[in-house]
Design goal:
heterodimer, A: about 300 residues, mainly alpha, MetI-like fold, 15 helices, about 75% helix, about 0% strand, B: about 325 residues, two-stranded antiparallel ribbon, 13 helices, flat
């Protein structure tokens, strides 16, 4: 059978088409594979958390449990001190995020709108606070808080956020500065000619026009403060506990709750721990499911990548 | 004439007043941050520097500090610290040295993949960003206790066995990469998005121009994409180092915190402060290193134009 004659240019066209499709397949394949690697820890935890104690030990059961068991979740729920710790996390991170967003917006406005002596030096200090690790600052902070008998209370942490020194504070100040710089100053001037004070202009005009960036700042501040345990655990120690802190002390709490002294029952099984871990990240995943766009596209709005 | 001088003086005075008012307003807006900076950052910074050369004791009258010179640092680096702190510090330094370039490369590659015109781009981007939302110290600890950070059975891959037969070193390298890939990915979320945004802002006409000149995709990447992206690589590496350093489950942080309340002689606040300062200096060295390596040598805003020029000069592949 002789091959039908195909014009050469058509062959070339088919060739580029095939090459393009192959490239497509490779790209999708990689993206899916990488997505699997990203999600692997969560998938593994999910499957383990649903196993009963026999499946966990059985080496033949790898990812799919043979019997679904929700008992782990019930135990983990109690171990995490659940409604209380969730509520604590919810309002505590919320307040921190509000305070941090507010103080960062004010500082960012000062850097974006005004000329004043010492401006570049102060900007340098803002950036320096980003590089100084928390480990250096936490010791004296803790000493001062304990000198005023504030350890075990959330007040000092709220104060730190309200005065602009919260987690990754420099990032938020930079974000607001960049955003305000992109807004035309003529709007502010117009408001001032109409008799508004500087503060009124800031609140009623500038902030009112900056809702998208306020949302971004609030959300990032919220989840980062939610996940912070190093300083929170130290300062709020014992008396106030958030969900991630409960996860940190999971083994101890479980032992206290479910293992009677002198009993021969086996120690904490892996499935309960994984159920606890998943319960602790579930609220954030839920938040992310709804606000995914705000998070990912938020970084674009920050102007970090330049205009 | 007279009236004019008066007016000039008047104008000057008014502009001086306006400038002063502007400065007052600026400091008004900055006041909360400034107060916080002095109370919660500057003071602790210098106080911990002071503590690091002191022995701190608690008495009924309050905290007593006694200057002991470099004793805390000596203890940390050549004394008892050799048992726990020095290994942890070296481990962190090594991790930052290896992870930072890997995070840079992987996040740039992932950003370039996401930049392709594909369906469900938003979905992939959203998945890659999940760790930024949920990653916390306790979560990380649970995952590493549980073995979730290693993909099961990877060391049994036939491919790896084949590599091992040729070069055991290469095998070890690949195994290290596979064993750490999840952690590296989980620390890359923000960086991917930063690179992606930067890539999307590159003027498309640059690529068209280089295409007309016959540059291959490989050449285009090295001569156009990379030079333009370069300032971002500095930002991303600093971000990555700070992120790794701030991560609460790293052993150095744990040792610093544990020593605060340690009762054995020589430990305590002063010793902890010294540990934190050694850690800070290491962080500075790491940041300085990557800053020096990645900072672009040619300055000027026209980096893109320069890149095109270079493509033209060296010539693309001849077809």
């Amino acid at each position: 059978m002789s091959a039908p004659r195909v014009p050469r240019h058509l062959l070339a066209l088919v060739e580029t088409k095939i090459r393009r499709i192959a490239f497509r397949i490779a790209v999708y394949g990689l993206l899916v594979l990488i997505g699997y690697v990203f999600l692997f820890p969560l998938l593994k935890m999910l499957s383990q958390s649903l196993m009963d104690s026999r499946d966990i030990i059985d080496p033949n059961v790898i990812l799919v449990p043979t019997r679904l068991s929700l008992a782990n979740y019930a135990q983990a729920w109690a171990t995490l001190n659940m409604p209380t710790s969730l509520l604590n996390s919810l309002w505590f991170s919320g307040l921190l995020a509000v305070f941090q967003t507010w103080s960062s917006a004010m500082a960012g406005y000062a850097f974006a709108r005004f000329r004043f002596p010492g401006k570049s030096a102060l900007m340098g200090l803002v950036l320096a606070t980003y590089i100084i690790p928390m480990q250096v600052l936490v010791i004296p902070r803790f000493m001062v808080f304990s000198a005023y008998d504030l350890v075990g209370s959330v007040l000092p942490l709220l104060a730190v956020a309200l005065f602009g020194q919260g987690l990754s504070g420099a990032i938020f100040i930079l974000i607001f500065r960049n955003f305000f710089q992109m807004m035309p100053p003529s709007i502010d001037e117009a408001a001032q000619i109409d008799g508004a004070s500087r503060f009124q202009t800031f609140v009623r005009i500038t902030l009112a026009m900056s809702i998208p960036i306020i949302v971004v700042s609030f959300l990032f501040s919220y989840v980062w403060n939610w996940n912070e345990t190093y300083v929170t655990g130290l300062v709020a120690s014992g008396r106030f506990s958030t969900l991630p802190l409960e996860l940190d002390g999971f083994v101890a709490s479980y032992t206290r709750l479910f293992i009677k002294p002198g009993s021969t029952t086996s120690k904490l099984n892996e499935a309960v721990r994984m159920a606890g871990t998943l319960i602790s990240v579930a609220p954030l995943l839920l938040l992310y499911a709804f606000l995914q766009r705000q998070f990912v596209e938020g970084i674009e709005k920050t102007g970090i990548t330049g205009e | 004439m007279a009236a004019r001088t008066v007016r000039t003086r008047d104008w000057r005075q008014r502009s001086r007043i306006r400038r002063r008012r502007e400065a007052v307003a600026a400091y008004g807006f900055l006041a909360p941050w400034l107060i916080g900076f002095v109370l919660f950052s500057a003071f602790p910074f210098f106080y911990s520097m002071y503590l690091s050369v002191c022995e701190v004791r608690f008495t009924i009258t309050g905290v007593q500090t006694r200057f002991i010179g470099a004793a805390n640092f000596v203890r940390a680096l050549v004394g008892e610290g050799q048992l726990d702190f020095v290994p942890a510090l070296l481990e962190f330094g090594g991790m930052a040295l290896v992870y930072t370039p890997l995070i840079l490369v992987f996040s740039l590659v992932l950003a370039m993949l996401l930049k392709q015109r594909i369906r469900a781009k938003g979905l992939f981007r959203a998945i890659y960003f999940i760790p930024v939302i949920i990653l916390s110290g306790p979560l990380f600890n649970e995952m590493s206790n549980n073995g979730s950070l290693h993909i099961a059975g990877i060391s049994d891959l036939v491919f790896l066995r084949m590599v091992a037969a040729v070069s055991p070193d290469l095998m070890r390298l690949l195994l290290y990469l596979f064993n750490n890939i999840i952690v590296i990915f989980w620390f890359s979320g923000v960086q991917i998005v930063i690179f992606l945004n930067a890539l999307q802002k590159i003027d498309h006409s640059l690529y068209e121009a280089s295409g007309i000149d016959g540059a291959t995709a490989w050449q285009t990447f090295w001569m156009i994409t990379l030079p333009i992206i370069r300032p971002m690589t500095v930002l991303v590496s600093v971000y990555s180092i700070v992120q790794l350093g701030a991560f609460s489950s790293n052993a150095v942080s744990q040792i610093i915190r544990a020593n605060l309340f340690a009762l054995n002689i020589g430990a305590g606040y002063g010793y902890s402060a010294a540990l934190s300062w050694i850690f800070f200096l290491l962080m500075l060295a790491l940041i300085g290193l990557f800053f020096g390596l990645l900072r672009s040598k040619e300055k000027g805003p026209d980096a893109g134009g320069e890149a095109v020029f270079r493509v033209r000069r060296t010539g693309g592949t001849k077809r």
